[in-house]
Amino acid sequence: MAREQRTERSSFRRYFPPKRKVCRFCQRNVRDIDYKNVDILKRYILERGKISPRRVSGTCSYHQRRLSTAIKRARILALLPFLED
Amino acid sequence: MTQYETAFLISPNLEEEAIEKVISQMAEVVKKKGKLINEDRWGKKKLAYPIQKFEEAFYVFFLYEADPAVPFELERQFKQTEAILRYLTIKKETKEKEVPEEEKSLPASEEKPTEGEDVGGDIEEEAVEKKKKDEEADEKEEAVEKEEKVDEEVSLPEEKEKEED
Ligand SMILES: [Zn+2]
């Protein structure tokens, strides 16, 4: 993406900030995210197996770190794919 | 004594009896020098991707309390056992270290608009984390960082890295 475009988009975002999303783990008062809980992890995986960024899912930084650790562990044990075609 | 959780995957072409033998052999390693708190068997489960050409494996999880020598001994035995397709040991966090209430309820999206670049999940997340470390000299955040480091992998299988994108 060209640098100019990005600046344009940034200023647009500054005046029209995206709607603040709420972290679903905080909402449910969940502290630990277990890598064995594959059903929950799957909700935070985008197509091709990527971890959904905070910007999209609204997860707070604390839980995003835990989520990312859990997903990586689940991948090692083949509970989740590394890459999905 | 630390609490550990070790997961291991057993080859699906083993007879039931042989599987029992592997599990009890590993359980003995734990019981010898530690305390096996829970043994969880998921049975034969389809793998998210094939490992050594196998499409499924037996999943077993041990939760135990022991000195670091025990997970290391388990790892040594896993490596020697052909039927073990994969394993992972993590340190469990102790319950006393509760996260302060304010930490849990931090608002979700604190990113500045200029920082939102369209990179893939993993990469972006790491970048954001680094930026955050500079931004937030907040003690609350620091406390969590330290706690996070406690809960880390003790051992990883060798093939792990190359499969990542
Ligand atoms: Zn959260």
Radius of gyration of chain B: 20 Å
| pLDDT < 50 runs, ≥5 residues of chain A | none
Question: What is the N-to-C succession of helices and strands of chain B?
Answer: EHEEHEHHHEH
Termini gap of chain A: 25 Å
Number of helices of chain B: 6
Task: Walk me through what this model shows.
The complex is a heterodimer of chains A (85) and B (165). By secondary structure, chain A is mostly helical. Helix content of chain A is 49%, strand content 0%. Chain A has helices at 3-15, 24-27, 38-42, 54-57, 61-76. The longest helix of chain A is centred in the last third of the chain and has 16 residues, at 61-76. Chain A starts with a helix and ends in a 9-residue tail after the last helix. The model of chain A has no long low-confidence stretch (mean pLDDT 85). With 165 residues, chain B is of the alpha+beta class. Chain B is built from six helices and five strands. In chain B, a hairpin with a 2-residue loop joins strand 2 (35-51) and strand 3 (54-66). The model of chain B is unreliable at 97-152 and 155-165 (pLDDT under 50). The complex binds zinc ion. Zinc ion binds next to helix 2 and helix 5 of chain A.
Descriptors:
heterodimer, A: 85 residues, mainly alpha, 30s Ribosomal Protein S18, 5 helices, B: 165 residues, alpha+beta, Alpha-Beta Plaits, 5-stranded antiparallel β-sheet, 5 strands, 39% helix, globular, binds zinc ion
Quick structural overview:
The complex is a heterodimer of chains A (85) and B (165). Chain A has 85 residues and is an all-alpha fold.
Fold blueprint:
The complex is a heterodimer of chains A (85) and B (165).
Chain A: H1 3-15, H2 24-27, H3 38-42, H4 54-57, H5 61-76
Chain B: E1 2-10, H1 16-33, E2 35-51, E3 54-66, H2 69-80, E4 84-91, H3 101-104, H4 121-135, H5 139-150, E5 153-155, H6 160-163
Antiparallel strand pairs in B: 1-3, 1-4, 2-3, 4-5
Helix pairs in contact in B: 1-2
Bound molecules: zinc ion.
